[in-house]
Input
Amino acid sequence: MVLIGHSMGHLCVVIICRVVTLKLMLMLGEISAVTAAAGLAAGGYLYAGMWPTSQIFGRAILGGGDPSEFALTYDDGPNDACTEALLEILSRYDVRATFFVIGRFVAQRKELVRRIRAAGHLVGNHTMTHPVLLFQSPARVREELAGTNAAIEDALGEKVRYFRPPHGARRPDVLRTARELGLTPVLWNAMGYDWKPTTGEVIVANLDKGIRRNRAAGRGSNLLLHDGGQAGIGQDRSASVAATETLLRREIPNGVRFVTVDEWNGS
Output
């Protein structure tokens, strides 16, 4: 009896251990599934809120329906020498561009912003201090956008109509606040990667990758470049200036028409 009892006891222990192991495996599987789901959700949220061509959180201007239309857009200015050099080049080629300006720089360079507008270019809102709006409170978002509207309107005496979120970062309420303030959101579909030290040739090569994709899709190209930098006025953007002249010299004879982003509102 003892032997039988011992064997049965051992069998029970084995069975219990296997049941516990199975339960642990199932629990770990559930934890892994939850972790994976959370990871997918976070990845989806970041895609919706950061990827420039995503329209999941709300509509934003990307590009028109004509592959032969390009929009030159410049972020983070105004920035003295580089902005002025761009104004000279754009005037020489009789091209209009879109400048998304930082509010705190507008307050310091009102006359330069007036020169941008007087040359026929579109001036848009790029927030006061260039934060990642995806992670800011609704009150901070409104403060950033409304403050920049006020700075631009004080300089130009006209309403601001367009807004580009820094880094492309937005949530549904960010876009809703922008629209409540009379702003149409604008993103991009071709990027020069010109905010770091580089050359005009590399910037053009980067833009060309996006231009090829857009042409294949039958879309116009909304080209993201920079005439300034969020760290402060005085950033070197000479490579972006060189890239701009290369594009204009190359593309105008090929029939490309350069437009401001407002021409795509409704596209």
Strands lie at 69-77, 98-101, 122-125, 162-163, 184-185, 190-191, 221-226, 257-258. The longest strand covers residues 69-77.
